[in-house]
Amino acid sequence: MPRGYEVERTAVKDEARLAVPKGARLVVLDERGLDWSTERFARLLATSTAFVIGGADGLSRAVKDRADLLLRLSSLTLPHALAQVVLLEQLYRAATLLTGHPYHRS
Fold first, then answer.
1. Angle at 97 between CA 32 and CA 77, to 5 degrees
2. Kindly report the CA angle at 62 between 57 and 63, in degrees rounded to 5?
3. CATH code, domain with 83
4. d(CA 64, CA 1)
5. pTM to 2 decimals?
6. Structural domain that includes position 56
């Protein structure tokens, strides 16, 4: 086993201790998650929501099992940093949709 690999696998196992704010819905972003429209995603934000994006090794089964929802951002495989940008853009788009701002045009 290559040096450093064990450290990465340990990090994935340690995700099971993920701290989620009390009362927050845990949404795990996963390539096998549900495919939602922006409008439906916006309605998700009506409640306190915590999002989790996996790293290069994905997420542990324990984290996925804790999730209230598995959601995918795209059918394409996205690098971690790009997934963060896509999520941020969708959060902004959802917020503008909810406030009636013209940024979102469906």
1. 25
2. 70
3. 3.40.1280.10
4. 26
5. 0.79
6. 5-99
